[in-house]
Amino acid sequence: MKKTSLLIAFIMLCIIRLPAQESSDDAQIRKVIESAYIDGIHNLGNIEEINRGFHPGFDLLILRNNSLSKLPIYTWLESVAHRKAEQPAGPEHKISVKFLFNDITGNAAISKIELYREDKLLFTDYLSLYKFDEGWRIVSKIYQQH
């Protein structure tokens, strides 16, 4: 009887803790996307935040004319640095994000987001993330331009 009670208590503790962990992971994923991707890449923010949020092996996968190409993060960072030199204060009209969902399974996640400028939908993005020892990092992206 005592073993059964302990087992039930353990199972209840696991069930209660799962949503809290998912909620924490969800918040961390949103923070990484907002700081590294939205503020960093699109709104020409802090390069250190971009480096913290993107894995060095990140690839942006681009589909054009039925052909797939890759843009690695270091090439994207060169573009950000060039645009920052031209616009030190960032773009006049900032990009904003709407999170549609984060699907998290263990240390893997997919985030579906929409990017807007002045209330106009520009892109729907699918970002893949892994949770490393240092936290969640974006490892790849596919998108649909509107």
Main attributes of the structure:
146 residues; 3 helices; alpha+beta
Estimated helix fraction? 40-55%
* Number of DSSP E strands: 6
Give average pLDDT, whole number: 90
> Which stretches of 5+ consecutive residues score pLDDT under 50?
13-18
Largest sheet: 6 strands, mixed
Proportion of residues in extended strands: 35-45%
Structural class: alpha+beta
Distance between the termini: 61 Å
Q: What coarse outline follows from CA principal-axis ratios?
A: globular
Q: Largest beta sheet: what is the strand line-up?
A: 2-1-6-5-4-3
Radius of gyration: 19 Å
Account of the 3D structure:
The chain has 146 residues and is α+β, with helices and mostly antiparallel strands. 42% of the residues lie in helices and 42% in strands. The protein has three helices and six strands. The protein has helices at 2-42, 47-53, 73-86; strands at 54-64, 67-72, 95-105, 108-117, 120-132, 135-145. It has a six-stranded mixed sheet with strand order 2-1-6-5-4-3. β4 and β5 form a beta hairpin. α1 runs antiparallel to α2. It is globular and about 70 Å long. It starts with a helix and ends with a strand. Residues 13-18 have low confidence and may be disordered.
